[in-house]
Fold these 2 entries.
Entry 1:
Amino acid sequence: MEQKRYGHFDDQHREYVITDPQTPWPWINYLGNEDFFSLISNTAGGYSFYKDAKFRRITRYRYNNVPMDNGGRYFYIKDGETVWNPGWKPCKTPLDFYECRHGMSYTRITGKKNGVEASVLFFVPLKKWCEVQKLTLKNESSETKSLKLFSFEEWCLWNAATDMENFQRNFSTGEVEIEGSTIYHKTEYRERRNHYAFYHVNAPIQGFDTDRETFVGLYNAFADPQAVMEGKPRNSHAHGWSPIASHYIEVTLKPGESKDFVFLLGYIENEQDEKFEAPQVINKKKAHALIAELDTTEKVDKAFAELCALWDNLLNIYKVKTGNDKLDRMVNIWNQYQCMVTFNFSRSASFFESGVGRGMGFRDSNQDLVGFVHQIPPRARQRIIDIASTQFPDGGCYHQYQPLTKRGNNDIGGGFNDDPCWLIFGTVAYIKETGDFSILDEMVPFDNQPGTEVTLFEHLKISMNHVIENLGPHLLPLIGRADWNDCLNLNCFSWDPNESFQTTENVSEGTKAESLMIAGLFVVTGKDYVALCHALASRACGDAIATYTTEAARMQKAVDAMIAAVKKDGWDGEWYLRAYDFYGRKIGSNENDEAKIFIESQGWCTMAEIGAEDGMVAKSLDSCKKYLECEHGMVLNNPAFSKYIYEYGEISSYPEGYKENAGIFCHNNPWVIIGETLAGRGNDAWAHYAKILPSYVEEKYQTLHKVEPYVNCQMVAGKDAFKPGEGKNSWLTGTAAWMWYTVSEFILGIKPDYDGIRIDPCLPETANDYTVNRKFREAEYEITIHPNGAQKGVKSITLDGKPVEGTVIPYSAGKHVVEVTM
Ligand code: BGC
């Protein structure tokens, strides 16, 4: 059957083009790269915030509303009796033409109705605290058009959480000011706040509204605001209730004529002693200055060109040409873009994350790092320091921290025993990319307490030690509250539906339940740590050489011991066990009735190559194919849990096939894929990879999959689900970084290392010759690979025509040509 299509890729412009506004789910994009951020759906829904989606929310949004995706930046155009929006919503007046182009940090929405075209370009200019909305109105008809234009934004009272609940206060606090074509939102500015927002348009206005009920009407909706329907603004001045910002502009367009309007949603902070220009009147100096920087089409176009140039640069660092468009567009455009968005937003704000629940994750952020470290190393460096600053002296750490304060999040606390290892993962990736070993000498505090600083290297050391010092009865790592799988809660034992599985104080003392996922992670990061110590030793002099060599030997011993423990007590015959529960019983074993096999330990123990020499790796990978794989990817566990298990916690609370209970948790598929590549099984690696590669499933699943076809989602319903293949939790997921890491380093095989670039692809037999252009530190490599039907194994490499020993091209600045024969 022909699938209905909602859009398509436009690779040349690096856009996804949505041609039907009624997508199976709002398909969104992200604006902003540093401080000011926005979410925008294909119908212009969404909201903006400054740095922190919880504590500094600028515009209001209602999640999971009826209808879906309610609230956003809306332009209403009243042309005679017809009222319409360029993005179709909220009026839903049928359009003569609709198109939404989601691009790199911008979105362009175009609608046409009765001979008028309205096109809006949304973006956040670099280094500026505002969202630009450039609206172009064009009269394509043969008659003069007199249009009434209304803009609309609804202010959030800053704290997105209390905004939704503390109405006894909120309905009395709202305050605004109006000055010319600018509407200022200054709620709570009088007391502890030193910030306000504004909504401006670079044209004279003929009216405005700032009070929501007056504009919309208490019994009307965003789809038919009274002021718009009657074509009459009320010039309302909000006091309390719900402040909004709406401009009213009368526009006359001759046939063929077009006019631009630059709308600006801005955010300003003032010094405490410069808050007011007169009693109760906010100091607007900075707002005026910001407006002046963007008050013409030319200025806005220039700012937009700068944004596009930034993306040209970011996407110029790793570029592949395989001749396979579906692969190339994911590698060159969308996967890298998603990594950057995930870096910026961590897991805070999407259509599945409300922006109030979660800060930045310790493990999440370390993993996200491998997705963008090649593009913005200085920000990766800062991120590592921020993360490490939330660690405790014993190597444990806060599970999350708030981006605005950079402080550990007390609500969730610590005790997730995989967390510390991820610091090694992130830091090693940073040093390999940049060669900047000096980061290890940075003085970094514990729990952000001044005076507690030790070097970052010391943080890495205690991270490793944290695992070694927390081993259980089988000498495997204790799991604590949970490992990567937040939902495998082996010390929680909860019968109370109001308890959170993650934050409720562990009932058991946590001295028994052990994790094979952490075991594998420890071996992988332990080997990395040993290699790092050797790299440091080779760069050191005097006593330091011995110090690093001794440290390497100490950790190698711990790694060897862990390998031995896994071989002895972590192997189930055909696959690696998942864990031991509090009572010392096996989890993820053939002996269990349900969930006999789990993906996490297969992924990490095969990445660690534990027991490869005894055939364990190959067997584990085969078992993944046999028991976990299905049409849409590999499920997390099999068979799914059909009942709640008190000793296991949240994992068994999900219906079969969803989320951590046998969903296809895309994040961990790449672990097995990397295991496949290390084992040299290129065909299998590729088959798994293609199943969760958005561009590969794009056409097949536009309706089934539901969520954005240009990015990965966290979870696709698994084979036991009611609707296998349905995607959820799109955009903000570790999947982005893992997909990138997998394809860039393990499949295409271009791997940064301390002394150069290691080349070690693992490909399907059918792979053709391909070229990767890779900027690396001060060098630029043009690497052409000739697979010759091989899945793995580099036969020879030449660098600028001269043969290279081994698989590492030694680093040297400048342009180089590399030929690789497999
Ligand atoms: C979290 C990760 C976690 C994963 C599996 C995600 O939602 O962000 O930290 O590892 O779920 O539970």
Entry 2:
Amino acid sequence: MHSSLPTAASLYDRVRRVIPPIEWPAFTDDIDAILTLRRERNAVILAHNYQTPEIFHCVADIVGDSLALARRAMSTEADVVVLAGVHFMAETAKLLNPDKTVLIPDLDAGCSLADSITASDVRLMRQRYPGVPVVTYVNTSAAVKAESDICCTSGNALAVVESLGAPRVIMLPDEYLARNIAAQTKIEIIAWKGHCEVHERFTPADIRELRQAYPNVTVLAHPECPPEVVAEADFAGSTAAMSDYVGRHRPARVVLMTECSMSDNVAVEHPEVEFVRPCNLCPHMKRITLANIRAALERNRHVVTVDAEVAGRARLAVERMLAV
Ligand code: 13P
Ligand code: SF4
């Protein structure tokens, strides 16, 4: 027999610090419908740390950074995987689950990094640097992954680069992640010119102003931020690493130099920490809503497909990463 489903009403306590009571009624119908559909369809909802709290805390089964979502996508028993995140994440889930239905609620949930490079760009880099291994950030299309030796995320980039035993590595497409990793290793890194439109906007001056306005604030930055920003932060790491940092160190006051929803989601777990909230919105992540998650489950849309030959090669690059 099935255990009883949670209801929206029973979930509000969890998010009351970040969702005002006046906004909550707008979410309850969709939450209840999604929880029912999720069970009926034997679906699992994976949500990235940048999803809004009503998605992240109320309907997601699995939450995390890109690395955690890829790992968990590999081990799901569900028939349907709904990716509350952006398109490359849904493609990665499909690569790891070729026989499952993978749905993305909005096909236009893209990524400026994924858009910054094509498969033929990678082939050109290989021609220009013969024999140099290619490490590709997961924030890329399956076609780009297929041209790569191995993938990485911000959570494992250093370990992946150092696992290759090569003196030089091509690291695509995020220039800032590549430069931030180069600062931590003796391996020579050849970078591309892609940038995350959210993180490239933070500046060292932002950090200085924050430190002045909020004395003793702990500054955490994502490694997609420019190296000058990372240099002035107290810690840099993936979204999961930032969240762990708050849990382990419990700073009295913290600012996360990253996407806006991240602070809300972490704040729910740590009422004792004051979150200072200058942040930049990711318009792609914000395309995912409760309404389109519900529609995804009701209408089986949008089914993510990857060409079988491309998928075979791309999967190898992702699996090599997961083995590191
Ligand atoms: P991580 O969650 O892997 O740190 O990545 C952040 C990001 O920008 C994903 O789009
Ligand atoms: Fe892409 Fe940046 Fe948005 Fe992440 S936050 S999905 S890297 S544009």
